[in-house]
Amino acid sequence: MTSPVSRRLTAISPKAYEHPADGAATAALKSIPGLDAVVRKLIELRYERAFRQGMMASSIQLGPQQLPHIWMRYENVLATLDMPGLYDLYVTESPFANAAAIGSQSPMIVMNSKSITLFDEAELETVLAHEAGHILSEHVMYQTALLILLQLVPLGRIPSLAGLPLLGIRSALLEWFRAAELSSDRAATLVNRDPLVTARTLMVIAAGLPSARLDVDAFLRQGQDYRTWSSGWDRLNRLLNELNLTHSYPVRRVAELMDWVRAGEYDRIVGGAYVRRGQEPDAKEAAGSAYEHYRERFRQTFEEAGESLDKTITAMNEWLKRR
What we know:
Blueprint: H1 20-30, H2 35-58, E1 60-61, H3 68-80, E2 88-92, E3 99-102, E4 108-112, H4 113-118, H5 121-136, H6 140-152, H7 166-192, H8 195-207, H9 216-228, H10 232-242, H11 250-262, H12 265-270, H13 283-287, H14 289-304, H15 309-322
Parallel strand pairs: 2-4
Antiparallel strand pairs: 1-2, 3-4
């Protein structure tokens, strides 16, 4: 494994690898008056400390003495992305391969135990780098709120927050998160320095089988075949199918990643030509017309959930006053 010092991306800004859809969706979310305040209040009311206490009580915290081979990979991730902090890493029992970065004040990464048995070491590092990318991109506040809402809404606990349009907020955050995932796939690739490793990791996620039993070239072709189904009807079907998903389909993600690599952006960043922290352009201006697309899309999302955006803003402000 190459020394993390030799490939450190010093002071890299998340804007360097940000997918345009992520930038536009994030800017559009932040433009909704009161949404950030509601999200922070949701987290404050119960959840961040409860998540952390739950992890400490029922999961394993990794470190130099606990699964040290994974901890070493994790330190490599943090060093390569020149992360500004050290974040707790937990493994929790689950039969599904997954991981998440949660916590708006003190982010932490939680991996499901299935990830350790399913992924090889390079793939596992890719998963860790993907979650570190979320932290560096400051996705964790919205991501934590989304995890809370995914628990609240299906369990029928909406009355405990009466007057707050949780379904519309949840739908908007799902739309945003699918775009944010595309940025973190790029961050992971900047760490592993091999787009095929990221593709292989996504292939494993799609199949639920070890990569040694699969063919990554066939998976890449599958991603391109998926993109060629480009009729309006196909696009509509994909949109409808993704509405309640937290993650875009793995075949779409690998196709988006390879487009970025072929465009030369990956090579430019690895070569040292990237935006540093403190040099970022204005988010709304950088998003351009895509900002308006997501702004309108979020308006539609609230309407589809039975709420107008204007009424949602009013309801959020009233709810905040009662808090």
